[in-house]
Amino acid sequence: MGKEYNELNKRFQTLISKKESFEEGKEILLELRKNMYDMLMLVKKGFNPTGFSLMPFKNSNGYESKTMAYSIYHIIRIEDIVCHTLIKNDEQVFEKNDYQKRLGIDIKSTGNELNKEEVGLFSKKINLSELYNYLNDVYSESNKMIKELKFDDLKKKISPMKKDYLLNSSYVSNNESAVWLIDYWCNKNVLGLLKMPFSRHWIMHVDAFLKIKNKLIQNAKKETKNKISVCGFSCNHCFLSMWCGSCRSEYNCCSYGTLFESNVCPNVKCAKEKGYEGCYDCPNLDSCEVGFYKKDNEDGISAKTNAMFIRQYGKKNLVLALDEMHKHFDYKKMQEMVAQNKLEILVKYMKEANKE
Asked: What distance in Å separates the CA atoms of residue 242 and residue 194, rounded to the nearest whole number?
């Protein structure tokens, strides 16, 4: 994702500065922002809320040393201040919609001044649902501002009065780790601000957000002994390996599961209710059409085939067969082969693996 974001950012920065390509530059900026916004929204849909306040990189000095909740807050708080106080000269979303109260936090600032312990406490305290509401409101307002911008607006400089206003406000802490922001912003014109708080700044902190998420998921996977999902997928071979901690962990982000209430896949719910470790333990597996196994779901064919294989040959042999296949094919091709050839293809590669 980082590479994709950086490529879009380079295009935006090149195009936005020239009158003939200004409108195209705005479109690229809006596309970049949408991609990152959609990623933040996607994580919210399937991720365990407790993870938003955890700090798996606490000993690091990078942006990833914070939390997922802080990353979102910091991105949009800065954008809100810059968009409304410095560029539009109107009321911030934070104030207009009473977000300090709604978020349940004690600060109005960008959060730069918070040390790691304070970031952790802040992240546990903040209302996650309202944080995402704040994200939605700021994102929409900023996009509206970007769409309305004219090329001549790019050269406008920030009034010295704005600098004095921010210095005397509670929006930026006077702590040395935060107060530098005021000079940084106020020494730029509108073009310079577009190139950082509305784009590059997002990239840096969304990247940190995803690093934190991925680390939490990998930690969860290490703690989960059974690497075979309830439906029969092998978590080690799934395309969501860096996204989901497995349906057996506290970070179950299965893309199918997120379609249902509480992000619980019907197959997981069914197996749990019947006391089965997985669908492969169920005597009704062959005729089952629950959840992922429903007739019109082609992806479910390979998962069900895996479960049938496990019933006959065991989980260890499934992993051996898939490991052997993975030496020659990518995930998508493996899924197609299993769906088309059923048990036969898995048996073939199990035998090849056991020869070695």
From this structure: 31
CA distances from 118 to 8, 55, 60, 74 (A): 34, 12, 16, 14
Whether 57 contacts 215, CB under 8 Å: yes
Whole-prediction pTM value? 0.84
| Residues in Cβ contact with 312 at an 8 Å cutoff, skipping those fewer than 6 apart | 343
Domain residue extents for the chain = 2-217, 225-355
Q: How many CB atoms lie within 10 A of CB 326?
A: 16
Domain 2-217 in CATH 1.20.120.450? The answer is yes
| 3-state DSSP assignment of residue 231 | coil
Contact 304, 231 (CB under 8 A): yes
Helix axes 116-125, 68-80, angle to 10 degrees: 90
Residue 92 CB neighbour total at 10 angstroms:
20
Q: How far apart are CA 50 and CA 58, in angstroms?
A: 16
Q: Which H or E element spans position 36?
A: helix 22-46
The encoded tokens of residue 111 equal 């959060």
pLDDT per residue rounded down to tens, the chain (356 residues) = 578 899 999 999 999 999 999 999 999 999 999 999 999 998 887 788 999 999 999 999 999 999 999 999 999 999 999 999 999 999 999 999 999 999 999 999 999 999 999 999 999 999 999 999 999 999 999 999 999 999 999 999 999 999 999 999 999 999 999 999 999 999 999 999 999 999 999 999 999 999 999 999 888 888 888 889 999 988 888 877 667 778 888 787 777 777 777 778 899 999 999 999 999 999 999 999 999 998 878 778 889 999 999 999 999 999 999 999 999 998 888 888 988 878 999 999 999 998 86
- Listed residue (316, 314, 321) closest to 350, CA to CA: 321
